[in-house]
Amino acid sequence: MRFVWTLAGMLSLAVGITALVGAAALGLLTGHADPGGAYAARFETVQTTGHAVVVTDLDELVRQEVPFAGVGEARMQLDARTHDGPAFVGLAPADEVRHWLAGAPYAVVERMALARGPLPVRLTPVTPSEGEPPTVPAGPGAQTFWTRAGNGTLEWTPDELAGQRLSLVLMRTDGRADLTLELRAELRPGWLAPATWGSLTAGMLLVIVAALLLLRPVRPREVIIVVEPDQVPMLAGRLGISSLSGLGTPSPNRFAERQLVAVGSTLPATRAIAPVPRPQTLADLPAPHHPLRPPAPPH
Fold this sequence. Notes:
This protein is an alpha+beta fold. It is about 30% helix and about 25% strand. It has seven helices and 14 strands. The strands form three sheets. Strands 1, 2, 4, 5, 10 and 12 form a six-stranded antiparallel beta sheet that branches. The protein has a six-stranded mixed beta sheet with strand order 8-7-3-11-6-9. The protein has a two-stranded parallel sheet with strand order 13-14. Helix 1 packs antiparallel against helix 5 and helix 6 runs parallel beside helix 7. It is rod-shaped, with a radius of gyration of 44 Å. The two termini are about 65 Å apart. This is HAMP domain-containing protein. Keywords: Membrane, Transmembrane, Transmembrane helix.
């Protein structure tokens, strides 16, 4: 049982220390947020000769590049501006966007890496099929397939995108080509503060439990020795009990009992119990109690 308590204490200590380290890391991360609890980042200037910049599957890109943004409650915001003013930002089903831009050149966002300073964005240009003349898409404000749209700013939560293949489209409000975008993203992780305090509390409780388990006092173990009556003298001799003065001439059972008392007085934590010998067969019974032996003749 002592081994079980020790193992449980060591496991609690290991998990508790890990939780405290995690709480410290989350606390350092919290210190980099703005007063409103948001984390902001700017992107490198995005340029394309086409009419739009498209993220084919916004949910997949966020889960791939910013996995912590989809944990718990989080809110994301994207600000986009052109040289002429705010850009159009919209979310729509991917198939609708691809069909709408089928005859127009545009750029697709392939990667968006986290780094120090402005975040790099890798674009892949998409041009119309060979032999098909390029077309100019109609103004984005006139389309009805948008699930969410904004002028310069768009907000969403990862839960709103889960299970949907929605494309993010950025372009001029009039749909003209030669697009240059200045982008800024903002993330508000609502789970960060509760996770920090929860990890800190759990770590402290586990460390306290580990201390109680590892430092608990050890109870002395009581040893019980069971011996036959004829082995008591030999045991007494080995334990250094050489004289039993004052015992008189007791019966064998009484003599064994007193010798065991002497052994117990020598070993405070040891208690010896001598079983009373029992007859093994009917023939071992004394004459008055033997069922088959005739009674003794009268004198």
